[in-house]
Amino acid sequence: MKKNKLVKVLIIILCILAALVIGATIWLGSMVSEGVLYQNAGNDTHDNSIKQLETWGYDLEAFTNAHSGVEISAEAEDGNMAIGTLFNENNDACVILVHGAGGDRYCVYPLAQGYLENGIDVIAIDQRGSGINPDDKVTFGIHESLDVAAFVAYAKNDLGYSKVIVHGQSMGGQTVAIYASNVTPGSIYAADAVVLDSPVPGMELMLLEMFSDGNTEDAFSNYLVVAGKMYMKVFDGIDWDDADTINVVKNDQLPTLLIVSEKDEICLPEQEEELYDNIASEDKKIMYVDSAHIEGMIDDPEGYMEGVMGFLEEENIER
Fold first, then answer.
1. Tens digits of per-residue pLDDT, 213-228?
2. Taking a C-beta distance cutoff of 8 angstroms, is the pair 88, 70 a contact?
3. pLDDT for position 212
4. Contact, 40 vs 138, CB < 8 A?
5. HSE on the CB side for 262, CA within 13 Å?
6. Strand order across the beta sheet in which 70-75 lies
7. Residue 295: what pLDDT?
8. Whether the Cβ atoms of residue 258 and residue 229 lie closer than 8 Å to each other
């Protein structure tokens, strides 16, 4: 009799512990979800871009005086009305520029200048959770890639460009990689070529490295990642595997240029090389720049654009 009571007590204790673990996991998962999706809440992404340009020593006033832009919008498949600035200088080709985390479209204006000086018009867009994009949730390119597809179709159908390129930096590079891996070549949504500058190699990998301060073997950090991944899949309908860039690009069939920053401490060169190896397209090229994360265009704008334009000319994209 006493033995049976002891067993019942142990079962109750185990059930309570299990409930506590499940409850804690759900709570931690919700905290991770909140931190990921709303990472820019209360964050002035436009001001961040201006400060970043100042840090780089970029003359924003000179650019805006030389190039006049107009605001445009395109509706994504899920109904989001994406926002961008069009710099139309009557060229045949157009590039859609996608910025990285924490900033807005202004952060890619050094790239915009490079393309405009090489005879290619520009659409610089705000990613979700940034600038004045109406969707305030950041999904590491999963939903953001829908905005890219919308702007590609808009550039072809509404603006009449004969060639359309998409160029992304950091998380913007991840967005472009996911976009390129989910469109059918030759369709109205498919760009003629994509450029990935230091793309984030994967949502789960990046968050794990952030939680663990680089120690990816840390048990609690792995637990946080698992909790966040499970919570977002069940409650937010977002599967982190869809933002596993290294794996996702196995479906990328578009002409693709990958730019690797050799001094990158955020998106490591070896991770980028693994990503490159996985790109399915037979029409791909890798370019190395002797710079820190996404600073190739800042350190050597002439050499950077020479490499990019060389790739585009190989793809018969005229200036």
1. 777 788 888 988 999 9
2. yes
3. 78
4. yes
5. 7
6. 70-75, 81-87, 121-125, 93-98, 163-169, 193-197, 256-261, 284-289
7. 98
8. no
pLDDT of residue 314: 93
Give the C-alpha separation, 177 to 148, whole Å: 11
pTM of the model: 0.94
Amino acid 139 reads: T
Which residue in the block uniquely carries the two structure tokens 């998962």?
29
Q: Determine the residue type at 207.
A: L
* Type of residue found at 280: A
Tokens 């498949």 found at: 77
Radius of gyration of the chain (CA): 22
What's CA 287's distance to the chain center, in Å? Answer: 19
Low-confidence ranges of the chain (pLDDT < 70): 1-3, 6-7, 9, 18, 318-319
Q: How far apart are CA 141 and CA 131, in angstroms?
A: 16
Q: Could you tell me the two tokens for 34?
A: 């909140």
